[in-house]
Amino acid sequence: MALAITEWDSASADEREAALRRPALTADGAIRSRVAEIIRQVETEGDSALRQLTASLDKVELQDFRVGKREFAAATRQLTPKQHAAIELSIANVRSFHVAQLPRPLSVETMPGVSCERVSHPIDAVGLYVPAGTAPLPSAAIMLAVPAAIAGCPEKVLCTPPRNDGTADAAVLVAAQRAGIDSIYKIGGAQAIAAMAFGTASVPKTCKIFGPGNAWVTEAKTQVSAHLRGAAIDMPAGPSELLVIADANADAEFVAADLLSQAEHGTDSQVILLTDCKALARRVADEVGRQLCKLSRHEIAAAAILASRVLVVRALEDAVAISNRYAPEHLILHVDQPRDVLSDIRNAGSVFLGPWSPESAGDYCSGTNHVLPTYGHARAYSGLSVDQFMRQMTIQELSPEGLRNIGAAVIELAAMEGLDAHASAVSKRLDRMASQQ
Amino acid sequence: MALAITEWDSASADEREAALRRPALTADGAIRSRVAEIIRQVETEGDSALRQLTASLDKVELQDFRVGKREFAAATRQLTPKQHAAIELSIANVRSFHVAQLPRPLSVETMPGVSCERVSHPIDAVGLYVPAGTAPLPSAAIMLAVPAAIAGCPEKVLCTPPRNDGTADAAVLVAAQRAGIDSIYKIGGAQAIAAMAFGTASVPKTCKIFGPGNAWVTEAKTQVSAHLRGAAIDMPAGPSELLVIADANADAEFVAADLLSQAEHGTDSQVILLTDCKALARRVADEVGRQLCKLSRHEIAAAAILASRVLVVRALEDAVAISNRYAPEHLILHVDQPRDVLSDIRNAGSVFLGPWSPESAGDYCSGTNHVLPTYGHARAYSGLSVDQFMRQMTIQELSPEGLRNIGAAVIELAAMEGLDAHASAVSKRLDRMASQQ
């Protein structure tokens, strides 16, 4: 397996654009209309639609979707002590980083007698989706449940697809429960998103839905977020991405391992290496070939690696400019002075500094959230954090003095906008003060 | 004009639901397809499409959309000293409250050798839309421009519709320029949103679009936010809303003035009064009748007031529960102890405490932002603030010790998820450390 190496400086503008082009996320009309139909069905028929869809799509007949005490207990017994310990360590680190994100209330007296404040409240009801497509994802349960619990959302609902035997993955159940969720429903795909957006007799309606998923889940999230009675969503989703910036001293074996850890996610995973050292690029390409054949998911990884790009640039500044233009989900700065490079990085979901910070550390255990903006959305969106499970509300309290201080300006601006009643709400109060003096 | 007064306790469940029902925002198919056509046209034909659409929709031929020095100077001369002073005071107060919102960087060592950080960067390019439908809105320019400037967004583009004579409203120009925007384009409606989402030869492409607007603007924002090459948006929009909770000691004249200040926005404005005192409800109804006829926009206000609701409840707690269920954009607590009531308020965009805090104070000058979630979206969305003009990026840096501390857990979790290469990126590093000791 030889990675194709491109010299950036000798590439044409078209070649450069092609090198940074993401796969077209074909908005498949068939998926779109089928998802709309599933949503309509769940909204109007509730639980009976969920039972029917689960039977036809997940191939299992379920009467009760909710995971009960017995299934939680069985899941707990099923994991090894090492697996429990890994889940606990991940939860502890994610909790410790996310607790620090709790917003502080704000209070400013903008003028004498004009007090402006901002407070945050947890969202009343949130829905979390944990996929289980090619593999169960206990780490996703942790990344969604921990900030929801820290925010203090009173109602937290988690949906995850049932397996053929009618159970949910044990690791997902244990991770979610240990992270503070006990309202778990075995529902998958678009029907799970519809259930959490509109509510059914058994699934509570939520105000905002979080979490990753396949094309069906993503399309369902988009549709319910545009629906008047639907729910808000965390962010748009796309295939996972890693961009590595490496210099001449980078460790080719580590770089190759990091590229492959991204490539194994899916055949559409985006993997890019930028380096100012052609020799390093060649060493990495060799290493990728060596390591690839040993992976259990080597077919998936090979497909993603075939589509990956290795770009040799003249200087690290060029690599930074290209990375900022691409806006990767994950960015590894595998260079001598990563903090120097970091200061110029603007568009990225999460950044990993130096040789001992592999991307998989952030996927599971460092403490940062692994739900991150893909597909260039890092230009306008942030990764998941506690504040996305809360809303900010502003408050103002004016004393008579405060209203006197801003009253004339309110009346003047209202007049410029032709809004008499806005002015009148102030002038009536100012008149009253004058008459009371 | 008599407001209909409903006793909450004697209302049926259906009547209660009807009382809190918002108008159906009919997603008009004709608007939707026309907006899609406008967007397609601007994306493919750029400036020539903008010229053509401006000629046909705004009835003015423009060669150059950008406001030049001469037009800014003329606008500055056109305003009176009082108007300038009102704009300056508004900007100063909004700035003082929004500067306090600048996010602080975060740094947590989740385990020895595992450093997790979070920093915020301004969004590279933002688009602001200031409507000028029934009236020009200099206050909207202030509410959008001030936080964009505080966030430090390098590129800030503002679009506002041209008037028939080809100029933009003077107050909007002065307000925007004083608040830190000098890149202003005279483009309105869906075509302005499309121009800022995709960019043209004259209008820079932006990453996120902010601001209020009519059904066309709202639909265009929804469409470009779902488009792969489009732009993110601030929040979904709906008609403006005010809910007042008043007790027996509330001032009926002030309450009526506040209700009318909301009603004059548009015939679809939502106005609700909740009180535990039927006598107060009657006094307010009388006052509304008296004040209404004196308003220049009394036809608009009368239509909105006709659809408004006055609900008499048994106790203030019931009013709070109803308000939390409705989730109003603006909430006035015109009661004896507003702070006591505030502690139970969860879902609202902005709250106004006591008799001297009319809603119009927040619209213009108190310092809070007036771009707020309507239509119940306060359940999941926040009003505009500085952080919405920024993105958060997380960073992790592990030392060899740090990786040793979490390595086993990463490998265990990767195994549970069937992701070998994730484990291998860590185990290769742990092996190296072992071999170097």
Strand residue content of chain A: 15-25%
Query: Biggest sheet of chain A: strands, sense, closure?
Result: 6 strands, parallel
Mean pLDDT of chain A: 95
How would the global form of chain A be characterised?
globular
State the helicity of chain A in percent bands: 40-55%
What's the Cα radius of gyration of chain A? Answer: 26 Å
Spatial arrangement of strands, main beta sheet of chain A:
1-11-10-9-12-13
Low-pLDDT stretches of chain A: none
Number of strands of chain A: 14
Distance between the termini of chain A: 88 Å
Structural class of chain A: alpha/beta
The chain pair with the largest interface is: A-B, 126 and 126 residues
* Oligomeric state of the chains present here: homodimer
Q: How many helix segments of chain A?
A: 17
Please explain how this structure is put together.
Two copies of one chain form a homodimer. With 437 residues, the first copy, chain A, is an alpha/beta fold. Chain A is 46% helix and 16% strand. In chain A, helix 10 crosses helix 11.
